[in-house]
Design brief:
By secondary structure, the protein is an all-alpha fold. The protein is globular and about 70 Å long. Helices cover about 70% and strands about 0% of the residues. Helix 2 crosses helix 9, helix 5 packs across helix 18 and helix 7 packs antiparallel against helix 18. The chain has one domain: Amino acid/polyamine transporter I.
């Protein structure tokens, strides 16, 4: 008798074969502590550690409200992804779900937009890493491109070896971020309790009241930072990909996802409230971490270097995550015939190195750009990656809605880990993402970039679809290719 899951009206025999084949060969090498830290790392990045300084200067204390609202919708997106993952774990994540619930064309669009997002974000990360290295005098005279190449080489080698190395790197990168922000929260609370003067002023709520209140730049100033805050949460969807290689996903995934909302409240909202109580919002500026601003005012030795190291690890974490996720997504696309078949190859250690090598190749372009135009690379890439973030989250919500509809029709067995308040929360999240997309185009000062870029992107996607040779997955198609076994043995000995 065919199970309800296999009877899904959305999945044809060919689709079910692809879904089964695309996850073959992966190792379940991610444990509980690594999954927990991947969830944290996806929710804490340079957007808080560095970007909060700029946004505090633009919107003042209202940044805490924006972080909270965007954090709620980020949590809904995670819960939607969690419901999908508990229905069927897949390293292809939302690309695999789009294939099942929306069809191959939707999977194609979702996967390549996500790849574009990480490809551009990776160039941004490589540029940022090189600049963070140059903070220290010993690296001042080292060419920026060489520092970028070194960082890419290390991260690439670890990703090409085993998922365990990715998980271990992400664990320590995330731990560094958590310890740093936790230390700030503890110190900030102590300063408030003892009334220690910061920059000659007594900390407290009066700093907010005396400097324009919660909305010193008005509602317009607050709305202007929504786009940047949303992108600060970019990467939260990584846990969906990691679920496909988790040892005990049914137990640890719900716990990891549910803990994200508390961490957002503590680390993002809590940090901004403390920053507002310790110094006037005018003390914070773009290009300087707000944590450096506070600790430097307390004359803490070497604090700028310490925070720079933390921000460096955050950028390395993002680069690490981009390589990991794109390799899995590209393999899922290739297994469905929406990408070259070479991207589906996998090593004996369960690494989809075909997709990884393509991403690494594009990151090398980023290294070259650092050599040619080091000052312009960052802004060029970050605008393009924005489209991929919003589209990815939208696909996750739509797939969750399709899953719930199939469950209501009795075609799929209900899952226990459900998105709360659905379908109302699903529609609200889609509306929120539509608002973000509108602000991204019309309120970011980059209207003409999107005016030209969006049509070109649409043409590229349509052209790519018709140029892609569609193929059917056969039972004799190899899912594991031992061509880098020598590398695995050498690095694991």
């Amino acid at each position: 008798m065919t199970s309800p899951r296999a009877q899904s009206a959305i999945g044809s025999t060919e689709t079910r074969a692809i879904l089964e084949a695309q996850d073959a060969g992966y190792e379940k090498g991610l444990g509980n502590r690594q999954i927990q830290m991947i969830a944290i790392g996806g929710a804490i990045g340079t957007g808080l550690l560095m970007g909060a300084g700029k946004r505090m200067g633009l919107a003042g204390p209202s940044l805490a409200i924006v972080y909270a609202i965007c954090g709620i919708f980020a949590f809904f997106i995670l819960r939607a992804l969690g419901e999908l993952a508990m229905y069927r774990r897949s390293s292809g994540s939302f690309v695999s779900y789009a294939r099942e619930f929306l069809g191959e064309k939707a999977s194609y669009v979702a996967g390549w937009l996500y790849f574009l997002n990480w490809a551009m974000a990776g160039i941004v990360d490589i540029t940022a890493i090189a600049l963070y290295f140059k903070f220290w005098p010993m690296f001042t005279d080292v060419p920026q491109w060489l520092l970028a190449l070194f960082a890419l080489g290390v991260i690439s080698m670890m990703n090409l070896t085993s998922v365990k190395y990715f998980g271990e790197m992400e664990f320590w990168f995330s731990l560094i971020k958590v310890v740093t922000i936790s230390a700030f929260l503890v110190v900030g609370v102590v300063i408030l309790l003892i009334g220690l003067h910061v920059m000659g002023a007594r900390p407290g709520p009066h700093l907010i009241a005396e400097n324009g209140g919660i909305f010193p730049k008005g509602i317009g100033g607050t709305l202007a930072i929504v786009q940047g805050v949303v992108f600060a949460y970019a990467g939260i969807e990584l846990i969906g990909t990691a679920a496909g290689e988790a040892k005990d996903a049914e137990k640890i995934m719900p716990r990891a996802i549910n803990s994200v909302i508390a961490r957002i409240a503590l680390f993002y909202v809590g940090s901004v409230i403390l920053l507002s109580l310790l110094l006037p919002y005018t003390a914070y500026h773009a290009g300087t971490s707000p944590f450096v601003t506070v600790f430097a005012s307390l004359h803490v030795a070497y604090i700028a270097g310490i925070i720079n190291f933390v921000v460096l690890t955050a950028a390395l974490s993002s680069l690490n995550s981009g390589l990991y996720s794109t390799g899995r997504v590209l393999r899922s696309l290739a297994m469905g015939g929406s990408a070259p078949r070479a991207l589906s190859v996998m090593s004996r250690s369960g690494v989809p190195y075909g997709g990884l090598l393509l991403t690494i190749s594009l990151y090398l372009i980023g290294v070259f750009l650092n050599f040619v135009i080091p000052s312009e690379v960052f802004e060029m890439a970050i605008s393009i990656s924005a489209i991929g973030i919003v589209s990815t989250w939208s696909f996750i919500i739509v797939c969750q809605m399709k899953l719930r509809q199939a469950i209501h029709r009795g075609e799929i067995t209900p899952v226990k880990f459900k998105m709360p308040f659905a379908p109302v929360s699903s529609w609200l999240t889609l509306a929120f993402l539509a608002i973000v997309f509108y602000l991204m185009i019309f309120a970011s000062g980059q209207f003409y970039i999107f005016l030209v870029g969006l049509p070109l992107l649409a043409i590229a996607l349509v052209g790519g679809w018709y140029l892609t040779k569609r193929s059917t997955i056969h039972s004799d198609m190899p899912t594991v290719i031992p061509s880098i076994r020598l590398t695995d043995d050498f690095l694991n000995r």
